[in-house]
Amino acid sequence: MQPNIEKAKTLLRKISYILDSLEEEASSVGTVERELLLEYIRALYDAVLFPRMDPASHTMQARVPVEEQPISVSKAPAAPPRPEPAPRPAAHVPTPDPVVSEPVATEPAVSTSPRTWIPDAHEKLFEFGVARELSEKLQQQPVKDLRSAFSLNDRTLTTNKLFNKDSDLFAKTIEDLNRLSSFEEAKAYLSRNLIDPLGWTEKDKFKTAKIFIKTVRRRYL
Question: Tens digit of pLDDT for each residue in 78-132?
Fold first, then answer.
C-alpha cells in the first residue's frame, strides 16, 4: 500500500505553520496549539501507514483531507494605558485687601541736641556761686532721678509759677531732662524750649527759675 502523499504534504504544511508561528512570537505552546499538533501528527501517521480502501473499486484510496483554515496564533492585544487623572484645579486664595494706614497725629518732637550758643539773658540763670554753708552743700548733692529731687511743695510752687499751672508740662520736662546725659544738653534744652516761651527771665519768675535749674543741675553732677 502506497502512503497518501498529498495528505501527508498538507498535514506537514499545517504542522510547519503552527511551529513557525510559535517560533516568531516566542511564546510557549498552549493547550490549543498542543492539541492541533497532536491531531495533525496522528493524521499524518495514519496517512503514511494506513491509507483507506475504496470498497467500490477495491483500490487503495487515501482519505480525502478536509481543508482546514490555518489558525493564527497571536498574542492578546495589550490593554490600553490607563488615562492619567485630570489635575485638580488650584485652590483659589483670596487676595487680602491692602491695608491703608491712617496717619497718626504726633506731638512735635522736642529737640534735645545741645547748642553751643545761649543768649546772654539766659546765661544768668545758669550762673552758680560756690556753696559755703552746709545747707547749700546739701542742696547740691547729686540725684539719680529728678522726680525725687522735688518735694510736693516745691513741685506745686514750680508748676504754678514756671509752667503756668500745667502739671503735664512739668512732668514731661522732668522726663526729658532725666534722659539727657550732661548739664550742657540740659541748658540747651531749657534755653530752646522753656525759658523764653514761659518767660523765666522776667523779674517775678527769675529767682524761682534759678532755683529750679540749680536742682536740675544735681542730676548731672
Answer: 666 676 666 666 655 666 666 656 555 444 444 444 455 788 888 888 887 666 5
Distance between terminal CA atoms of the chain? Answer: 149
List the chain domain ranges.
Answer: 5-60, 120-220
Report how far residue 203's alpha carbon sits from residue 184's, in angstroms, rounded to the nearest whole number.
Answer: 24
Q: Which residues, including other chains, have CB under 8 Å from residue 165's CB and lie 6 or more apart?
A: 159
pTM for this predicted structure:
0.46
